[in-house]
Amino acid sequence: MNTLKAAREPKTSAFAVRETGILLVLVCMCLALAFTTPRFAEVENLLLVARQFSMFATMGVGMTMVILTGGIDLSVGSVLALSGCVAAKCIVWLAPHADAHIVVFAGILAGLATGLLCGLVNGLIVAKLGIPPFIVTLGMMSIARGLVYVITRGRPVVELPDEFFFLGQGRIWRVPFPVVCMLVIAFIGAVFLARTRLGRNIYAVGGNEEAARLSGINVDKVKIVVYSLCGLLAGFAGVTTASHLSSAQATSGLTNELDVIAAVIVGGTSLMGGSGTVLGTVIGAALMGVLRNGLILRGVSANWQLIPLGTVIIVAVVFDQLHQRRRERTQTRLQRN
Prior knowledge:
mainly alpha; 14 helices; two-stranded antiparallel ribbon; single chain; ABC transporter involved in vitamin B12 uptake, BtuC
């Protein structure tokens, strides 16, 4: 019971140390770029960076919950594309028959429902059939991408009404609306994980699934919920991306799953499950976004940009493994005493 209680409770002190370290790296990186690249510190560029990483951070909230349970979701990029295309197609089909605002609302709901459905299917298969998440979500990645090409026939969905574009292109004061949505979603996700019973159960399942099951936690329900939420947020990102591009592209979201997972891991969430926070994920997404923007402004070739980005991911995973081993040694020492 003590093991389960420890797993249920987020280790805030350890998390604060890791988040502080990541935030410090981000601040140092921003200062270095501000002094060496004049255009970086311009307000419009900073807002552009925030707009660019907001989608990864938004999907990262759901991915954080999945990884906290010890799972993974490789399908978010394809679900993003499928949700955006379904929303756009729905809007185009309904446009001649109803008011533009109603059509846009219906399209957004269709896109969100598509993402939720994909996540629900992932969760049901993982929880009820016991198939490894890597295999299930890899299959969903292929299925969703295939459906995108079937629906669009490889062509972009265009001629969308202006009312649809605010979601991805609008601003509140000077702040891009997707950034506002990211902050709201991140806040809700953080409160959900830290302050609700289901949120604490997510940590418990990731910390020790068997102990959680024996204590009466419905492990299957927890897994279904986290994969459904991950799919829902990927659906939201897909609709927002289509709005931002003024069209739904069949190629949207390619390799986005890697960027999202990277943001979560760089943000301090353990691949082993049981530890991590939404705040860390947002900081991780910001760090990756700033690094990518800095490389572009410095004129680094696109071919070379992947190298430092990949290096950051590897360093984050190595750090996570070292932290995990140190924690295991500490627990072993305490048990002996």
